[in-house]
Design goal:
The complex is a heterodimer of chains A (231) and B (219).
Chain A: H1 9-13, E1 21-24, H2 34-41, E2 48-51, H3 62-67, E3 71-76, H4 83-90, E4 95-98, H5 101-113, E5 117-120, E6 134-137, E7 140-146, E8 150-161, E9 166-167, H6 176-182, E10 183-194, E11 213-216
Parallel strand pairs in A: 1-2, 1-8, 2-3, 3-4, 8-10, 10-11
Antiparallel strand pairs in A: 5-7, 6-7, 8-9
Chain B: H1 4-12, E1 20-23, H2 27-31, E2 42-45, E3 49-52, E4 75-81, H3 84-92, E5 98-102, E6 105-107, E7 112-113, H4 128-134, E8 137-142, E9 153-154, E10 169-172, E11 175-179, E12 185-190, H5 196-201, E13 207-208
Parallel strand pairs in B: 1-2, 1-5, 5-8, 6-9, 8-10, 12-13
Antiparallel strand pairs in B: 2-3, 3-4, 6-7, 10-11, 11-12
Classes of the chains: A alpha/beta (231), B alpha/beta (219).
């Protein structure tokens, strides 16, 4: 098996330049690559375009990269609850491309799967449709949407092996598997890194072919946005 | 006038055995509390779960298990987890039977606006545009009027649209209404103590009144 192990997050992100296109897995703060975000913060780069369903919160996740003014553009479906994000957007420092969540997921999937465009009904008749080709199939209207690909994709998994096979946990899977495939270079950080053969091949969510670098992360905070409990 | 809980309770009566259902954030989330226990239904969370259970007890909170509103949740026995592309494949593919969501405005031809107020902060549409474009049946939970008394049931939406000609039924704090395929809100039920005249006065779009309009019940 090909060994894709790198030492840590710093080594994994060492060659990520400014002004490049990055994908980052996660939904809200669940399943985000915490270690790589910290490592990016330590780098002196800016002008990043980040594809991520959300933009973190003020003091965690992608919010940290925004605060340090490393991000030029966000491509997301929902960016609420982030005051610094709002400030940068209103002052014109930050560009935002808002995309319906299913369209975002499918554009990333298409990017990894080599499908340059597809048709979806989401957004027909709305401002999302402006400037896009519309076609009728079986009596219903659909928009053409294009694939999304990135220079680097950064994903977070529960378990992985040194050849890059990944298993996710709970709803922390979300956008991670499609992003793994859509990055020219995919960096995977995992909570537990094991040797080939230790993961059941029947249970692999993301086959190692999509992953170029992998390391075992540390000190996961896994912050909760809405802690909701029953008594 | 109905409380939010009563709106949720009335919508729960629309749920049928065997349905897969997506509940939006806000009042729609409350519907889960009122679905009759003898019905077998499965709740979908668009971040990748079929089988949403109740909120966890404090010792069972898992940061890797949240709903689309980022609240901590549990899974019922027989749940399935999947990625976001798969999640929207089941939505777009028409496999989800019922979508219940909130709205800022609905037009008399079934257009819905619920994602953006120009000039104010834009948070994004999340999964709403995908859901309304594909769900077989869409029920909207909403307030009939804005806080300053303007009707939110209009001839045409004034806010940016989320989806066109998609809303089938509305449960507001005043009434249950269906959207006519020919255009117009068909008044089906009144909230307890609310008159047809009041509903008429507070409905901006075309209101269709056929025969005697019963008061709604919740059981």
């Amino acid at each position: 098996m090909i060994n894709k192990t790198v030492k840590n997050a710093m080594e994994a992100v060492a060659d990520i330049p400014g002004n490049c296109m990055l994908m980052m897995g996660g939904f809200g703060l669940s399943g985000i690559p915490e270690n790589c975000i910290q490592a990016l913060l330590a780098k002196n780069i800016s002008g990043l375009t980040i594809v991520s369903n959300n933009a973190g919160v003020d003091d965690f996740g992608i919010g940290l990269l925004l605060k340090k003014r490393m991000v030029k553009k966000m491509i997301s479906s929902y960016v609420g609850e982030n005051a610094e994000f709002e400030r940068q957007l209103l002052s014109g420092e930050l560009e935002v491309d808002l995309i319906p969540q299913g369209t975002l997921a499918e554009r990333v999937r298409a990017g990894g799967a080599g499908i340059p465009a597809f048709f979806t009904p989401a957004g027909v008749g709305t401002e999302v449709a402006e400037g896009k080709e519309i076609r009728e199939f079986e009596g219903k209207l659909y928009l053409m949407e294009r694939w999304l690909r990135a220079d680097f994709s950064i994903v977070k998994a529960w378990k992985g092996d040194t050849s890059g096979n990944l298993i996710f946990k709970g709803t922390a899977r979300n956008f991670n598997p499609m992003m793994a495939a859509a990055g020219k270079i995919c960096i995977a950080e995992v909570e537990e890194l094991v040797q080939p053969g230790e993961l059941d091949p029947n249970q692999i969510h993301t086959p190692g072919i999509y992953v170029q670098r992998i390391f075992q992360g540390e000190n996961y905070e896994k912050r909760i946005e809405q802690r909701t409990v029953t008594q | 006038m109905l409380t939010k809980e009563q709106i949720a309770k009335r919508i729960a009566k629309e749920v049928k055995n065997g349905q897969y259902i997506n509940l939006g954030i806000g009042i729609p989330t409350l519907v889960a509390n009122y679905i009759p226990k003898d019905l077998d239904v499965v709740l979908q969370s668009e971040n990748g779960l079929l089988g949403i259970g109740p909120f966890p007890t404090a010792d069972k909170v898992d940061p890797d298990l949240i709903n689309a509103g980022k609240q901590t949740i549990t899974m019922v026995p027989g749940s399935a987890l999947f990625n976001s592309a798969e999640s929207f494949a089941m939505i777009r593919g028409g496999h989800v039977h019922l979508t219940i969501l909130g709205a800022m405005e609905v037009s008399e031809n079934g257009d819905i606006a619920n994602w953006k107020i120009p000039g104010k902060m834009v948070k994004g549409m999340g999964g709403a545009m995908d859901l309304v474009a594909s769900a077989k049946n869409i029920i909207v939970a909403m307030q009939h009027c804005s806080k300053d008394g303007q009707s939110k049931l209009l001839p045409e939406c004034s806010l940016p649209i989320t989806g066109i000609r998609c809303v089938k039924k509305i449960v507001s704090d005043l009434a249950v209404l269906e959207v006519s395929p020919e255009g117009g809100f068909i008044l089906k039920e009144r909230a307890p103590g609310v008159s047809v005249e009041e509903i008429q006065a507070k409905t901006g779009g075309k209101l269709i009144i056929e025969g005697e309009i019963p008061e709604m019940t919740f059981e």
